Amino acid sequence: MQQRAAALLAVPLALALLAPAGAQERPQPPAPRQSSADDVVVTGERDRARSKWLRAESANFTLYAVDEAQAREMAARLERFDQLLRLLTRTAAPAPAPPLAVYLLTGASQVERLRRQSLSAGQFATGYYSAAATGVVLAADMRWDMQRARTPRYSDVWLFTEYSRHFLLQNARGDYLPAWYVDGFTLNLATTRFLGDTIEYGRGHPSLALELDVERWEPIEKIVAGQIDRGQLYSAQSALLVHYILADPARRKAFERFLAETRSGTAPVAAFERAFGTSMKALHARLWRYRHEATYIRATATGFTVPDVIVSRLPRSADALLLDQAAMRIGIPEPDRQQAVLRRAEDAVAHWSDAFGRRVLAQAQILYGAPERADATLDALLESAPADPELLYLKGLRHLIAGRGQAAIAAAEFREARNWFARAWRADPDYYPALYGWVESLSTAPQFLSEKTLNALLKAALLAPQATQIQVTAATMMMAEGRFAAAEALLAPITVTPRDPASGQVPALLAQARAHLRADLAQLTASFRYTATWKDLNCC
To answer: Under DSSP, is residue 521 helix (H, G, I), strand (E, B) or coil?
Structure first.
């Protein structure tokens, strides 16, 4: 599959790039994060107090890396890519969201700290992404680019693919997008290149292009119908289909008609054939020819801004615990890994008793040890940083988990938990884990099923729509109240994909809503405790 540069793929991009620089809104520099006194070590302090890890904060990202130049360069590139996505999707006012945590790693062992991998022979992971009701993490293994010079870079392909997906879900605003479109769109942007004032995007990835040339294709109707949703060939055909749709204004209009029909309940294949005025057989044949006709975009961009980036060093304990902290935010399902995290935190604090290490130890004790053991640590940390939303959240989580384990004290513990969760949310209105925890802490109170608690869940879902479990819990609460149409409206747009195990619950919940079967209290409370980390699309 060969591609040549073209002047235009998406009209919105061309129009935006022709606008004067002043027409683009400049991202605001990030405010310094509220921290305990020794949570961050200012560059220049003695080496024994410093970690190899640093934190680089920009408007939309918080990067963690060991190389400052690399962190600054990647922060700038991701911010520029974010601006490109806003232009391509005509997102003038992005949905509210906390900055995305991005980890620049060096080797499979560090990726393994975030999740347990299961790779087949000949496969390797270039990064990881997972979204949960307690946090979202994106990581890239930079080692591959260090070992081999390649265009596009491994890290760019991974980060651009995953951030495109994250961005689409963040800004879909409750509208349905089929999995093949999300996957195809992100893969078309995976090979984006920034060369000075020039942008290239829409170029086919070499490995996917090879799949299209040498493998026997799946019938395209199986992809449109959602019957095939994983594998290299699925990715290649989805990327080609989305490229074909976006390459022509008339086909983009047809796609809008297709979305409107599927959102109103029409079966995907019938909706596609009617919207595009073609049969699946004809579409398949057209895509077979199009793979050699497809072009990519090279355009001059003058409206992008250079973001401000604030860099700080983490304290020494971060060498041992930074990746464990990230893993706990997205969930660690394996008991042996949980206990390993707790042991590492105990050992690290025994060697370096800085605030970062004590914070991570408190979190590990709450999740995998005895929650009450975290009290003294959290109280001391909160004396230094009384408005730190994460510390306030952890204090609430300590009482929530204690109440989960003992029914006799649940009401008192949950009451204490919701006071802390409320303080965390007041300290940072975008800190959605506190909203989610606050709602669960009401499960022993008379006002649990109420408009106020449902609105809190919907606010959390707005801030983190990638965390499907929040929407699942909100829909379950609606069904507990008999609001079946509202539950169906919330569930129907969710993209069901094997990458996100939480989305696998959606078909059964939709059937429950359509059958007007109420959810009981046990089903609702269980939804708060569902944990499953994301999988990779094509391997593990």
So the answer is: helix
